[in-house]
Amino acid sequence: MEKGNQLLIVSDQKDDLDTIVRQVASSFTQYHVAADDAKGIQLFDKFLPEIILVCLQDIEHSQRFYLGLYRASEKIKHSPHQSILLCKTTESNAAYEICVRGVFDDYVVFNSPYDVHRLKLSTQQAIEKINLRLQLAEFKSSAASTRQYDGLQKLSMDDAIQTYADLETALGAQLDRFLNRMASGDLQSSASQLDPGQLKQQFTRFKQETISAELKKSLARFTPERAGTSVTETSNATAEKSLTGSASDRLHAEADRYILVVDDDEMYLTILQSILQSAGYQVIQAMSGRQALEQMNRRKPDLVLLDLNMPEMDGIEVMKIARSHEYLKGVPIIMLTGNSQKTTVLEAIQGGARDYIVKPAESRLLLEKVAAMLERKSIR
Amino acid sequence: MTTDNYATSAQPPIDHAVLTRMVGDNSDIHRHLLAKFISLTPATIQQIHQACSQQQAEAVTQYGHTLKSSARAMGANELAEVCQQLEIMGGSQNWPQIAQLELRLDPLMAAIMDYVNSLPEK
User: Fold this and answer.
1) Which CATH number does B13-117 carry?
2) What is the pLDDT of residues A134-161, one digit of tens each?
3) Which range scores top for mean pLDDT: A186-195, A338-347, B67-76?
4) Nearest-Cα residue of chain B relative to residue A268
5) What is the CATH number of the domain that holds A108?
6) How many Å apart are CA A18 and CA A2, to the nearest integer?
7) Which of A73, A160, A294, B54 counts the highest number of beta carbons within 10 A?
8) Across the interface, which of A265, A309, A362 has its CB nearest the CB of B22?
9) Cβ contact (<8 Å) for A274 and B73?
10) Longest C-alpha distance within chain B, in Å?
C-alpha cells in the first residue's frame, strides 16, 4: 500500500463509526472522523483525503452532504479522491442509482453479515485507483510544457506569419549584439580558446534560448480558447479532464458544462438560472432570439434551453439558423413550450429540437432532461 | 368572486410546496426568486393594463401568457389562473371578460407583495 493515503469518515452514528475504523483505518497513514457536515467539509479542506467514506443516517443525507461538500469546499475540485457511500441493505438499489449518476464512485452495503470484507476490499481498490490517477496526473503534468505549444495551433495563419517574423527580427537583433560583442573583444577571452565546433555549440545554445524566450512572449499575446484562462491552465484542465473514471471527475465536468437559456421572460430566466446553477452548471442568459445567436457565436454552448414563443424571432427560427451553421448545428437544443399540445411539440421536434419541456417545469424533471441530454452528447 | 375575496383569502398567495417542486427546497433561493418576482411583475401587469385599455388582444394574450408561466413557477396559483384566463380571452377578444379579469390583477399582486415582504429575514 502507498504511503501517505488519508481517509475521511463522515458518520453521525457512533457505533457505525467504530466499526468502520476497526475495519479500514489500519490501511491508512492517517484517518479523520467527522460527525456532521460542517466538520466533514472543514476536515476535507484541511487534510485533502484521498478516500471519503460517507455513512450518514440514510443515503439521502449522505448524498446531500457530498454534494454540499462540492459546493462548499474550495479545494475539492482540484483534489483527486474516491468517494464511497455506505448504505443499508434496503437502500442498495438507490445507492446503485446514485453511483450510476456519478455522485459517488462506489457503494458498500454496510455491516452485511454475508459480506464482512466488502468495505475493506472496496477501500483498498479505491486506494489503488487513486494512486493510479495521481501517477497519471504527474505524468500528464510533466507533458504540460509541451502542450503549451499547442497554443500555436489555435493561431490564424496571419498570426503565425507575424509570430515567425517577430522571431526572426528578435533573433537577428540578438545575433547582431552577439557579433558586435565578439567584434569588440567582449567574448575574446572565451572565443579565442574555442575551436569552431565549440563555437558552433555555444551559438546553437544561444539561438535556442533566444527562440524559446521569444516564443513564450509571442504565445502570451494570444487569447486562449476560453477567455480568462491561460494556455497553461487550459492544458492542466485538459489533463484533469482526461483522467476519467471517477465520480469527482464527472461532477467536475458537470460544473464545466455551459448552458445557454433563452426566454423573453426575465423572471423565468432567473428561475432556470437558479435551478441550473444550484446543480453546478454554468449558465448564460439571452432574452431574445438575436441575443441567443450572438451568445452562441461568442461561445458554443454544451446545451441550449430555448423558449418557443418569443416575439420578433421565435424559437423555431433561432433553431433553424443555428442548425444551418456548421459550427452550431451539433449543439443540442431543448425547446421550452408553454403547452404540451401535439402540434407544438411536433413543430419543435421537426424544427430540430432534441427534446421539449413544458413550462414551468419542476426542477427534478428539468435537471433530469438536461443531464440526459448532456450525457447523450458526450457519448456521441 | 370580488377582489376583496382575494385580498382577504385565508390561503397564502404563494404556495411554497409548488415553489419547492419548481426550484428545490433552498429557502435562500425561494427568497431571492420571490424578491425578483415582486420587482418584475408590476411592470408586466402595467403592460397588461395598457394592452387592455387600447384593446390590443394580441398583447393581452402575450403578456398573459408570459406572466402565467412565472406565476405558476412561483406558486402564485391564483394569479396564474387569472393570467391563463386573460391569455384565452385575449385570443377570443372577449373584452367584457378581459375587463373583469384585469380588475383582479392589482389586488392579487398587492397580496403577494405584502406576503413576500412579511416573510422573515434569514
Assistant:
1) 1.20.120.160
2) 776 666 555 544 444 444 444 444 455 5
3) B67-76
4) B70
5) 3.40.50.2300
6) 24
7) A73
8) A362
9) no
10) 46
